[in-house]
Each structure stands twice: as structure tokens, then as C-alpha cells.
């Protein structure tokens, strides 16, 4: 919680200062709150929804102090973010096949390392498929990391990423591994041929093991703010996302984007399994709506 609070301090400084001792509940407060939410990248639609809901709550509960308004805003944020809070079921298949995608530079390879560390602590053995077959540095990074952390890595130089994924899942089944993680090359949603490649990797994994991949995760850079929404939409259309990992929340001023994500996808929420709040191996934390809302406004 402390790391999360530190990480979101830039976002929080915009919001929490509005509810100081002598603040009055008037149009000025709502206007300043609107500005703070927009600056935090909550987006116009989500900001409007939060303000309308907050005004209603203030009226219904006859709130008279700024601190009560802050409590009401926190409660609204918790309600909004709660559908994103779901644990990943790591025991529903053996091996559990996890496919991981993301745009270049989102922190995908680092997140895979942290996620593998987390799963090992839960007692799972891990096999890693280095599906980024074009970038030698990515393969080397994973191989080196695997050697250091007792994780088997399957890689091919310049091969077909779908073939690497197929081999890894087959090997995972044969060796009785707990979790097979399939890394994929970073790609932009606008690169149609690379999005088609991602669909192919998913299809081929399913041929290697029925019902796989059990989890299709997207790694998002917390600093991209509203841009997250377009990424989620594009990758979900391509591979049917089951969960998200939001990285680099340490030091971002755009923490409100998660509220926008929750609001715009309220008909089909995609859970945020983990958030990254630092460089350390233990800085990948399970997402908690209560903790996140509190770190935003308290």
C-alpha cells in the first residue's frame, strides 16, 4: 500500500488538496475537482459520471464538509473499480497456459519476470516461451533471467513465434509443468500483420492444448493514460483478453485512466490482475479497488 501511495502521489496531489480544512462545497469545488480528474486522465465521460454521481450523493446524504465529499468520492471510485478486482485462478489447468501481449516498451518482459517470481512463490514450476523471435535482446534477457531464477526457457532464433509457443506448451504438458508463459513481441494495434500474427499464435496454442491459452494478458504502461483504452479494445478484439497488468504506476500523474477503463468497459470489465509500482521483484501487486481509490484521494 505504501509503494502504491508513493507511486500515485502525483495523481493524488491534484485531487487530495481540494478537500483541505476550509474548503466549501460549491461550484468552485466541483470545477476544481473536474479539472483535477481530467488532468489525471480520467477522461471527459468518466469525469462527468463521477461528478454527477457525487453531486447526487452529496445531496441525498446532506453532506456539509469537504472531508465528507472526499469520502463520498473515494466510495464512488471503489464501486467503479471493484469489477476490475479479480484474482487469477492459477489452479484451473495443468499446465496453466498464459499468453502475454503488449505494445513495445510497456514493460512486458520485466512483468513476465515478476509474474514468474510471484507464481514460483505460490509453488508453481514455470516454463517460459520466448515468443519474441526477432529481437535477440529479448531472447537473451529472458534466457539470462530464466537461468538466474531456475525457469526453463524455450527459444528459437528468427523462427516462427507460433511454433515456439506450440513447442513450449507441448513440452510443458510432457514435463508436468505448472505454468507455461508465452511471451510475444511488442506490437502496435495499428500493425495489422503483427496483430494477425498474434491471432495465429493463439490459434496454434489451442492446437497444442484444448482450452489454451487459459489466460490472455495485456501489459499496459500506466503512463499512457487514455491511450490504454484503444490498446485494450484492439488487443481484446484480436485475442479475447482475460486480464490486464498495468505497469509503471510509480510516478505517474495519470492514475485516473484506470477509472476511465472501468467506466468505459462496465458492460464487459477485463480484470486488472496486477499493478506494477516499482522496479523490484516484489513490486508487482494484486490490484485492490479499495487501496487504489484510497491512494488516489486520501
UniProtKB/TrEMBL annotation:
Residues that bind GTP: 102-109, 183-187, 247-250
Localization in the cell: Cell membrane; Cytoplasm
The SRP54-type proteins GTP-binding domain, residue ranges: 271-284
Source domain of life: Bacteria
Listed EC numbers: 3.6.5.4
GO-annotated cellular components: cytoplasm; plasma membrane
Enzyme class of the recorded protein, top EC level: hydrolase
Catalytic activity, as annotated: GTP + H2O = GDP + phosphate + H(+)
Principal location: membrane
Gene Ontology molecular functions: GTP binding; GTPase activity; signal recognition particle binding
Membrane topology annotation: Peripheral membrane protein
InterPro entries reported for this sequence: AAA+_ATPase, P-loop_NTPase, Signal_recog_particl_SRP54_hlx, SR_rcpt_FtsY, SRP/SRP_N, SRP54_GTPase_dom, SRP54_N_sf
Keywords: Cell membrane, Cytoplasm, GTP-binding, Hydrolase, Membrane, Nucleotide-binding, Receptor
Pfam family, one: SRP54
GO annotation terms (biological process): SRP-dependent cotranslational protein targeting to membrane
Subunit structure: Part of the signal recognition particle protein translocation system, which is composed of SRP and FtsY. SRP is a ribonucleoprotein composed of Ffh and a 4.5S RNA molecule.
Function of the molecule: Involved in targeting and insertion of nascent membrane proteins into the cytoplasmic membrane. Acts as a receptor for the complex formed by the signal recognition particle (SRP) and the ribosome-nascent chain (RNC). Interaction with SRP-RNC leads to the transfer of the RNC complex to the Sec translocase for insertion into the membrane, the hydrolysis of GTP by both Ffh and FtsY, and the dissociation of the SRP-FtsY complex into the individual components.
Family statement drawn from the similarity comment of this UniProt entry: Belongs to the GTP-binding SRP family. FtsY subfamily.
Protein name: Signal recognition particle receptor FtsY
Organism annotation: Quisquiliibacterium transsilvanicum
Lineage of the species this protein comes from: Bacteria, Pseudomonadati, Pseudomonadota, Betaproteobacteria, Burkholderiales
Amino acid at each position: 500500500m505504501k509503494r502504491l501511495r508513493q507511486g500515485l502521489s502525483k495523481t493524488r496531489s491534484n485531487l487530495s488538496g481540494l478537500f483541505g480544512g476550509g474548503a466549501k462545497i460549491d461550484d468552485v469545488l466541483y470545477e476544481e475537482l473536474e479539472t483535477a480528474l481530467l488532468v489525471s486522465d480520467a477522461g471527459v465521460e468518466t469525469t462527468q459520471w463521477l461528478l454527477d454521481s457525487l453531486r447526487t450523493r452529496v445531496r441525498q446524504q446532506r453532506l456539509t464538509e469537504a472531508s465528507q465529499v472526499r469520502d463520498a468520492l473515494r466510495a464512488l471510485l471503489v464501486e467503479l473499480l471493484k469489477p476490475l478486482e479479480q484474482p487469477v485462478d492459477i489452479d484451473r489447468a495443468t499446465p496453466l497456459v498464459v499468453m502475454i501481449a503488449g505494445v513495445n516498451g510497456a514493460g512486458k518482459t520485466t512483468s513476465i519476470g515478476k509474474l514468474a517470481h510471484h507464481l514460483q512463490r505460490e509453488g508453481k514450476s514455470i516454463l517460459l516461451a520466448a515468443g519474441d523471435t526477432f529481437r535477440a535482446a529479448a531472447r537473451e534477457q529472458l534466457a539470462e533471467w530464466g537461468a538466474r531464477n531456475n525457469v526453463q526457457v524455450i527459444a528459437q532464433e528468427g523462427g516462427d513465434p507460433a511454433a515456439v509457443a506450440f513447442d513450449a506448451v507441448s513440452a510443458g504438458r510432457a514435463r508436468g509443468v505448472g505454468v507455461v508463459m508465452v511471451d510475444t513481441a511488442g506490437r502496435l494495434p495499428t500493425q495489422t500483420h503483427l496483430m494477425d500474427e498474434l491471432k495465429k499464435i493463439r490459434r496454434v496454442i489451442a492446437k497444442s492444448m484444448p482450452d489454451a491459452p487459459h489466460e490472455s494478458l495485456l501489459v499496459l504502461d500506466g503512463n499512457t493514460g487514455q491511450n490504454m483504452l484503444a490498446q485494450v479494445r484492439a488487443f481484446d478484439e484480436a485475442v479475447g483478453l482475460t486480464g490486464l497488468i498495468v505497469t509503471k504506476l510509480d510516478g505517474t500523474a495519470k492514475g485516473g485512466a484506470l477509472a476511465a477503463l472501468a467506466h468505459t468497459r462496465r458492460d464487459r470489465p477485463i480484470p486488472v490482475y496486477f499493478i506494477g509500482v516499482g522496479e523490484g521483484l516484489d513490486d508487482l501487486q494484486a490490484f485492490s479497488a479499495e487501496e487504489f481509490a484510497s491512494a488516489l484521494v486520501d
